[in-house]
Model the fold of this input.
Amino acid sequence: MTNTQPRPESMSASQLSSQDFLLAAKQAEIHSLKQLELSCGLVTHVTALIHELQRERGLSNIYLVSRGSRGGDTRAHQLGLSTFAVDAFREALGSLELNSMTSAATLLNRIAVVLHRLDSLDALRQQVNAREIAAANNTDEYNQLIADLLALIFEAADISGDPQITQALVAMFNFLQGKEYAGQERAWGVIGFSAGEFSKNIIDRLNGLQYAQQRCLDIFSDVASTDALHCWESQTNDSSYSELARMRQMIRRYEPGEQLPTTMAEIWYELTTHRIDAMQRCEQRLAQELLTLCEAKIDAAEMDLQQHHRQLATLSDTVPLSSLGDEDDNADTTLSIGPGVNVRVARSIFDLVQHQAERLRELNDALGQARQTLEERKLIDKAKGILIKSRNITEEQAYRQLREAAMSNNKRMVDVAANVISVAEMLDG
Done:
């Protein structure tokens, strides 16, 4: 890994030149990009783990609701796949250079939380094996673990200093969040069909999850690359989607007391799984796109560094020092040129510095735009936390209240969230 060159012991602070800091800035950029590349590599393992846990959650619910009569063998096979994904994730953590991640405290804390929950996964599985946990509680446990994993992707986007990588991470986060809502829809639908009936609470949950999916996919569509968007659109042209739509409509029209064939649980699981597997294929495309982007950014930065070295070497080797007063008429009047300094050299270095400064300004502007979606997510999460605490409700209920308020008032959810936060701060003040 490229690091900033240490200052020679014999070199005092007064001897350090603009060239030294120019090169150090580029080396720092490369170091930051390589750290970001490691984080993005971890993200690919996170997405794979989430996918396996989502499948495990749905199959565990079939097993629980059927009192162990269905889904046992399939679930046992899935546990092996999930365990493999957990091991791969843990191994990927070993590639992180913890001592160098000085600006990633929140990300590291999220990783600690995830590892703690993964340590409890075997105990949850044993509860499912013994049917000592209700399907709804089982779903909530998996939901929380997956939510913590998704938060890793969110934090990776938040610490990214490159606008294009940030945008790619934002696209991936929203797509994966939409996929998770699809996974929760699968899990709750399995509970209803396996029981042969749907409670009003489950129907409301399913309707809310469908809305949340669409919201995430809309944000994804706004920020995703053309190739990523085309990947998803191509996956939706499938007859199974119309079959899934019919089953969704069946749930909406369900009347209390109506008995449904419990075998429909497997049909529902297969249809929703088909859609989620299609999303995974796009998810893999997003992950590869992200890694390719990281590699391209690092290559470009390293080429820039080499170019800076060549330009500075050429200037020092081929251009003789000016004599006193050897300033041409075209010298940049904004430069303060001291005696004995070659004007051409000074101006060339100044141009390099100016170019890099302008590039950094443009990156910061683009980064601000890319992070807008992240900031909106933070506001919504903060508002949900306020509602959960003040009204003693679940996270899902808090989200539903924000969504319904936004729809009824024809406002964006982030605007409703900002209002909730403002009112809470006013009352606290």
Observations:
- The mean pLDDT is 77.
- The longest helix spans residues 264-318.
